Amino acid sequence: MRFSKAVVKYRLPILILAVALLIPSVFGMVNTRINYDMLTYLPSDMDTVKGQDVLLEDFGKGAFSLVVAEGMPDSEVAKTVDALKKVDHVESVVWYTSFADISIPKELLPEEIYREFNTDDCTLFAVFFDSSTSADVTMDAIREVRRVAGQRCFVSGMSALVTDLKDLCEKEEPIYVGIAVLLALAAMMLFLDGWLVPLVFLASIGMMILLNLGTNIIFGEISYITKALSAVLQLAVTMDYSIFLWHSYNEEREHYPDKEEAMAHAIHATLASVLGSSITTIAGFAALCFMSFTLGRDLGLVMAKGVLLGVLGCVTVLPALILLLDTPLQKTKHRSLIPDMKKVATFVTKRFPVFLVIFALLITPSLISYQKANDEVYYDMGQCLPEDMEYVIANSKLSEEFDIASTHMVLTDARLSGKEIRAMIREMEEVEGVKYVLGLESVVGSAIPEEMLPESITSIFKSERYELLLINSEYKVASDLVNGQVEELNRILKKYDPSGMLIGEAPCMKDMIETTSHDFEVVNIVSILAIFVIIAVVEKSLTLPFILIAVIELAIFINLGIPHLLGQSMPFIAPICISTIQLGATVDYAILMTTRYLANRKGGATKGVAVRDALASSIPSVIVSGMGLFAATFGVAIYSDIDIIRSMCMLMARGALISMISVIFFLPPLLLLCDRVICHTTLGMKSCIEPHKCKEK
Predict the structure, then answer these.
(1) Of 131-145, 276-290, 316-330, minimum mean pLDDT range
(2) CA nearest neighbour of 311 among 231, 204, 222
(3) Tens digits of per-residue pLDDT, 532-548?
């Protein structure tokens, strides 16, 4: 109670401090860099990641783009190429005239190379940047390249993707938050007992969201997914804590006429329940930190911090605001729209065998759909952008005009002889789906000794340690075909140069697929084990964790299985994150009901009465919580043009509803079915097994 009384006593200083902290929070939020490149979250010890560093160190080349020039004569293309070379951070521009400029007769250029870079109406050239793929200066350079090249040039490559993604995110993110706030406000006004109280909740939660976003500066940078989702998720997940405090305060006011004394008791009561509730949510987010694909750690740390700040705000800032505005809050109260749930509870408990059968029947098809949906995820980040984005249009042009869907780069030992390089190139060009391999040997052939070439040409493809080859492929990034192609190219490369590295978007995506497949299993196991232990400790039971997790896991299987039934594919990160977020955020519904059931049983009620009363008293809280999470995420899912954001928000919104329904209709029957086992395996419950100790109510 000491802490609670201190909060009440120092409520004005608490509010002043909270408002004052918003200033550095805004500064921190503005100065936290946002990362739009998913590939940077791969483990740093992979060849594909190390190769990117080598490319930058040895060749001064980081990002890479293929540009399609449409309907431009050679003279105009040449002028464009010269203009692009002057753009800041453009390291070099490679076109076939790069070689003709040094008086090499065009006839000496292999005919297939000229043909591959030119069609009847289009020509293709490569732009190398001296900065990394997702660096801010690279994105600025991409915008400048597009401006200089004009509307008849189409810029592809990962840097073009992250540039378009950044521009779209920055346009949409303020609207995400606005939609989430408005819909959450509407849900709270409908389901709570006051018109003004939702605004007070949002003011308190909003301060904590800003504080969370501001303190992200300690990480240096966060991913765009984390930035887009963290505010919405924090609002949805921590709304429950505010509701707990408000209900507790109103209950205490019936016992304590003095509002300050009532609030002190309300804070004390709420702190215990909120801490217990928040631990499972934090555990769900913390489980993401066990991913070797470090995007999970990025999202997990930010959201775990957000939940902790949400709890802190609930027991400090919110009580101060409620006491400050107590008079208007009391005057604007109204009856909750949620009716008495005793009839629903009676219906469920009387017909519990029917719901047990439905539960059993849903397990197999849900699990099958869930597993198939996980096999149908996509990894190509280009798929998350609308079709009218410049990057998507450029990729379509590249595929239609030149039959190029992806580009790989080979870094091989510079000490290999020209004969060995040419032999390796021949083998690589025989790999199915490879259009051609471009390097010094393939461009000038064996007709001109390398020693006769000027440094301006050799430096494009060769450094002291490595030689660079470009491989253009007909196969799309992240497809099974390109993954098989990458394996075969790597086999050939390692035969000639065991230390050689195959890099580029497709090899990185292949590594990402293998990494995240393993991560999915690890994160699932860690989150389930962590929450199992928490439930076992909180409920002092060995069997209840199995029952509660089974109910929520079925809801997760149904939720993640629906995309398969609808013929939809999810972005790869969605099932990994959603399975842990849904488990951590909605298992609270089950814990709330189970805690009341145990209290009823210990109070002497029979199992039927205990379950019925626990269900009747829990349904309003479960509905408010579930609808709050649904409201905060559903609007974003409908609005967003970025598929990865849209998919994750839709899964969270749908998951909230499915978990809510599962807890209401499946948990009570399971408690009734397993009551005897629960009593045997739960501390302090053995006496409830004896019939004479129980009574009807």
Answers:
(1) 276-290
(2) 204
(3) 998 898 888 899 999 99
